[in-house]
Design brief:
Blueprint: H1 5-17, H2 41-44, H3 50-62, E1 70-74, H4 76-79, H5 84-87, E2 93-97, H6 103-113, E3 121-125, H7 137-154, E4 159-162
Parallel strand pairs: 1-2, 1-3, 3-4
Length: about 170
Amino acid sequence: MNLSPGGWLTLLLLSSACTRASPAPRATQTTSVTQPDSAAANEEDPRRFEAEIRAFEANDRVKPPPPHGIEFVGSSSIKNWTTVAADFARLPVFNRGFGGSTLPDVVYYMDRIVLPYHPRLVVLYAGDNDLPLGRPPDRLLAEYQSFATQLHSREPAARLIYISIKPSPSRR
């Protein structure tokens, strides 16, 4: 099969969308499992993205995303994927990437940038920015589980695809 890189990703996403991940265990709490340390409050305080999140909300009032669509959410790898709508032209996709975000940031804002859309599929890429902050893999797993738990408790039919963290040459 001779596919472009975008074609391979399309094939991967569509084949992954045909199966549903097992729901994560239910949680009673809807906040992130991490809290900013006072020493690293600037880098870890999710409120640093408030302006970007408000911009999403303002744009949504003018042009709402497709209901029950396919949401791409996460860090700069998603934010900078400016052709996602064209790459998936036949699908109801929309982008909610915010650059520099971490898994706790995505969890923190999911009530505002994920759950209101009632997505049928969420494509999540986050974690790449967490590692340079010294967060261990078990903490990333806990954040992912928090995201999945909250998504499936509010949108049980929603599917979740996690894009694996990629090597980042700029972080060597």
